[in-house]
Recover the amino acids of this structure.
């Protein structure tokens, strides 16, 4: 029932995958409360490990992406109270935010709701990223040809597809040999600017009409990881992000990233050393200051222009110094390996599970962890 730890091999626990029925249709108000509050039956396991879900039974630890409880849609006050009370029970053995930004975000909301004691259950556990599927990075770094950029983001509007295309076009007009691969789809709406529909015709025309752009609406993650091995820089000028997992995957492949400074991204990118962050004005939660506000359209347009100009500046410098791109990539791999490498994640996860099990019955020589 969890997404970021199940690939970590260990001789100290065994994973059991659970099949889930998702009773989304039972909540007529559009909330994901029912889906995120599962009842677990039939599984003979010592501990559940969930992702954003708060089970109504069994002992569990929960990985939290950004907020907890995380109920999307029209959530009613009593539903939030149910989630908070379940987290307060002895059955909840640990709350595992994926980043320091998420820990601070969740802690503020626990305190505001009168559940300050839940902060004591929190410890950051980032999960793990497997190494690259191929080994072509060294050969690519020595290449002095075109600069190959990669953009990956299902929500193209929010993730910064517009500024990425505009910056790449500006670079080519300036004589820089840029090639761009896009794994995304243009979208006209985003929760960042609610109620506003943005035109997508221009983006679609550029994606389909330029020979220097390779466009995939969607590809499996394994193919994305291979693309990271054959490209130079990941571009992710996102307006909002709960984590930015693509930055971690790129970094462990030795690929530096250009992204914004929102939420947890500065934890993954040491700007000017392992990659580059573009500054946006942020609120106390490290989110873009103007999300959902009345002047969001005006501020959105200004932010898109700022992102474009910033991308052009960084990429122009890197296009003329391919050795620096390789150096940034090597440092990115070192940094992300420290944060997400399997070798360091496994003992941390083992400690989390061990402490969780010690709060209940003593485990045998082998414990089952349901994920």
């Amino acid at each position: 029932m969890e997404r970021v730890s199940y690939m970590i091999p260990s001789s100290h626990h065994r994973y059991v995958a659970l099949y889930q029925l998702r009773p989304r249709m039972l909540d007529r108000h559009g909330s994901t409360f029912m889906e995120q509050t599962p009842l677990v039956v039939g599984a003979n396991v010592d501990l559940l490990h969930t992702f954003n879900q708060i089970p109504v039974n069994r002992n569990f630890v929960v990985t939290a992406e950004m907020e907890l409880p995380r109920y999307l849609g029209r959530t009613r006050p009593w539903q939030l109270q149910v989630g908070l009370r379940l987290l307060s029970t002895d059955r909840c053995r640990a709350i595992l935010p994926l980043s320091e930004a998420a820990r601070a975000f969740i802690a503020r909301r626990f305190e505001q709701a009168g559940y300050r004691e839940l902060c004591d259950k929190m410890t950051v556990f980032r999960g793990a990223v497997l190494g690259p599927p191929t080994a072509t990075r060294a050969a690519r770094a020595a290449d002095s040809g075109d600069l190959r950029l990669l953009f990956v983001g299902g929500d193209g509007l929010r993730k910064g597809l517009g500024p990425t295309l505009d910056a790449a076009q500006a670079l080519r007009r300036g004589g820089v040999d840029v090639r761009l691969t896009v794994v995304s789809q243009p979208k006209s709406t985003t929760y960042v600017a609610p109620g506003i529909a943005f035109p997508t015709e221009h983006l679609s025309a550029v994606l389909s009409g330029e020979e220097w752009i390779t466009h995939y609406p969607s590809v499996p993650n394994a193919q994305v990881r291979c693309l990271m091995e054959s490209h130079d820089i990941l571009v992710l000028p996102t307006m909002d992000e709960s984590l930015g997992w693509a930055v971690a995957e790129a970094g462990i492949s030795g690929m530096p990233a250009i992204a914004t400074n929102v939420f947890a991204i500065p934890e993954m990118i040491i700007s000017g050393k392992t990659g580059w962050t573009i500054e946006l004005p942020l609120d106390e939660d490290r989110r873009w200051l103007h999300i959902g506000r009345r002047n969001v359209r005006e501020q959105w347009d200004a932010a898109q222009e700022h992102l474009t100009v910033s991308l052009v500046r960084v990429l122009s410098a890197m296009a003329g110094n391919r050795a620096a791109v390789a150096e940034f990539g090597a440092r990115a791999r070192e940094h992300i390996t420290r944060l997400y490498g399997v070798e360091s994640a496994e003992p941390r996860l083992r400690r989390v599970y061990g402490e969780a099990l010690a709060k209940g019955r003593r485990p045998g020589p082998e414990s089952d962890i349901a994920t």
Remarks:
- The mean pLDDT is 89.
- Residues 13-128+341-370 form one domain.
